[in-house]
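Sample 3 of the quickstart, ligand zinc ion:
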Amino acid sequence: MHEEFLRGIARFREQYADNLPWDPEAVARGQSPKIVMLTCSDSRVVPHLTTSSGVGQLFMLRNAGNFVPRPGTGSSEEASIICAVDILRVEHAIVCGHTHCYAVAALNGDRSKLDPALIRWLENAERAGAGASPPAQVEHNVLTQVARLKQLPCVRNALTEGRLQVHGMVYDIESGRFTVYDAASGTFVWVDERKPSK
Ligand SMILES: [Zn+2]
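Result:
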């Protein structure tokens, strides 16, 4: 096992053994997160840290590129989203891309030398238009995946019933800031320049 990883586990135990940053009885009783978040597996994306979220607050899904596979294909993503939306009844679903995303770069680059499994995975997304900058490619992918998320039957039903909101976001890995898609302006705007709406 990786030494630094093991030392990190030990440090956490030393620091929090008698004072866990969660209520053991409460977490044993269950969870009631308000948010399901699909983001990239990228190690530079650290949602709990950069959203000041605690234990039980974010129901997380991660994969390379924050892609949403087609409905009915038995994907882990659809299964997890059904758990979040229909069982846990989350109120918000977030697709969060990030700057400098390798998956988005692969999506928009030359795929010919990629592993066939990766080529198939990239079919869950769409290339951005010719000449799109890397940040614009990331935003394009987020909007593609938001649209695909809305095609999942559980999400479609929850939207129809008015119990779910779907959001597209981008995490900027250098600054630790987020943008969110603003449908009114058709652009991504910085989250920390908006007043929280809820
Ligand atoms: Zn990524």
